[in-house]
Amino acid sequence: MKPVKKRAETEKAGVGEAGVGEAGVGEAGVGEAEVREAEVREAEVREAEVREAEVRETGVSGAGRVPFTPRLVVPGGRDGRRMLVIAVIDKIGTGLWAGASTLYFIYVAHLSVGQIGTLLGVSGVLGIAGPPLAGRLADRFPVTRVLVVAQLVRGAALAALLTTHEFLPLVLFSALGALPDRASSVLTKLFAARVAGPQRVRYQAIQRTAVNIGWAVGGAGAAAVLTVGTATAYETLLLANVGSYAVIAVLTLRCAEPAAPGRVVAEQGAPVAQTGKGPTPWRDRRYLAFTTTEVWLFLDDSVLQVGFPLWIVHATDAPVGLVPLILVLNSVLVIVLQVPLSRYGETPAAARRLLLPIGVAFLAGGAALAASAGGGPWFATGAILVAAVAFTLAEILHSLSSWELSVALAPGDAQGAYLGVHGLAQSAQRSLGPLVVGAAVGVGALAWPVLGATLVATCLIQHRLVRPQDPEPAPLAEDLARPEQRQNVTENAANNAETHTPSPHGLS
Questions:
Q1: Is the pTM here over 0.70, yes or no?
Q2: pLDDT single digits (tens) 12-49
Q3: Alpha helix ranges (H) inside 108-166
Q4: Phi and psi at residue 505, in whole multiples of 5°?
Q5: Which residues neighbour 283 within 8 Å (Cβ) at sequence distance 6 or greater?
Q6: Which pLDDT tens digit goes with each residue over 476-485?
Q7: Are 99 and 219 in contact (CB under 8 A)?
Q8: 239 in Cβ contact with 126 (< 8 Å)
Q9: CA dihedral in degrees (258, 260, 261, 266; nearest 10)?
C-alpha cells in the first residue's frame, strides 16, 4: 500500500506544481503589465519635472500664458543671451555698411549702374548655395565652429573690396562674401533652435526685436557718417562692418556647443557606430513643398523694401518723404509687437493656425495699396500707412509660423540639412521678389489685390501641407497577447528608432 500512496502523493504534488506553474504564468503576465505601467508613470514624472524646470527658468506656464516680465527672460541661458548680443552687433555693422554699399561702388569704385546690378545679381545667385551648405556642415561639425568660420570669411571678403577698384575682382569678392552671409543666418537659426529648445519661438521673437534695434542703430550711424560724403567716410563704414565680424567671431568662440539631436559624439576611446543613411530633405516631398510655399510667403520683404518706394513715387500722390517713414514704421512695429505676439506661435498647431490671419493681412495690404492710387495726397498717405501696417503684421506672424514649422517638420537627426533647405526660400525670394513686385507696379492697382489673393491661396495650401500626420493604428489587445506578435511589435519599434529620429510634436 505504501508504494501506491507514495505514487498518489507524487501525482498530487505534480498537479500542484503544474498549478503553481500556471499561476506563475499568470503572475508573469501581471508582472509585465505592472512593469509597463511603472514605465509609463516614470515617463510622466520625468515629463512633469522637465515642464516644472522650464517654468522655473523662463516663467512659461503649462497653459502657454506668459506674464510680461518673465517673458523678457531670454531662453537658452548664458549662451542664448550671448548669441543675442552677437546678432545685435552683427546687424549694427551690417546696418552701417548696407546704406553705404551702393554709394561706395558709385563714388569710390566708380562702377556704372549696370555693373552694380550685375555685381549684386551674381552675388545673389551664389548666395543661394549658402543655406543648404551650412546646414549640411552643421550636421557634421559643431555649429559654433562653422559659424565662426562663416563670420571670418564674411569679414575677409568685405575687407578685400578695399584692395581693388576693378570690376571683376569686386564681383568675385562680393560673391564670395554672399555665400557665408546667407549661411550665417541659417547657422544662427540652428543654434537658437538647439539652445532654446521648446522656447525657440520666444527666443526668435526676442532676437528679431533686438536685430531691428541693431539695424536702426547701424542705419542712424551710417546716415551721420555719410553727411561727410568722402571716400574715407565710405571706407570707414566698410571697416566698421569688418570689425563687427571680428568681434562676433570672438564672442561666438565663447559660446558652448548646444546639444545636437543628430550629431553623435563618442566618449573618449568609444567607437561611434551609425547604421544606414539618415533622412534627407531632398527626398522629403512634404518638406520641399513646404519650402516652395515659403518662397511666396516671404514676398512681404520685397513688397516693403522695393514695392512701397516704387509705388509711392510712380502711382500715388503721396509725398516722397513717406518712403523712409514706411521703413521706420515697419521697424517700430516689429520691435513693439514681435515678442507679445510670439505666444500665438509656440507650438506647431498654433503656428499652423497663424496661416489664416497671415493670409487676411496680405489681402488687406494688397487692397489698401490698390486704393492708394485713387485719391489725393492725404487719402493716398493714409491708405499706404494702412497697407504698411498690414504687411508688417503679416511679416511678424509669418516669421513666427515659419520658424516653428521649419524646425518641427525637420527630423532631429538631419535638422541642419532641413533648415538649410528651408533657408533657400529666403534666398530665392531675394532674387525673385524684386522682379514680381516690379511687375506688379508696372501692371497697376489691380495687381495688388491679385497678389494678395495668391498669397491667401498659398497660406491655405501650406495650412493643408503641415496638417498633423495620421498615426499608425495600434495593435489590438488580443494580438499583443500572442508572444510572436509582441516580438514583431518590439522589433518594428526598435527598427524605427534606429532609422528615424522623430521631430517634436509628431509632425515628422
A1: no
A2: 444 444 444 444 444 444 455 555 555 555 555 555 55
A3: 113-127, 130-140, 143-159
A4: 70, 15
A5: none
A6: 444 445 555 4
A7: yes
A8: no
A9: -110
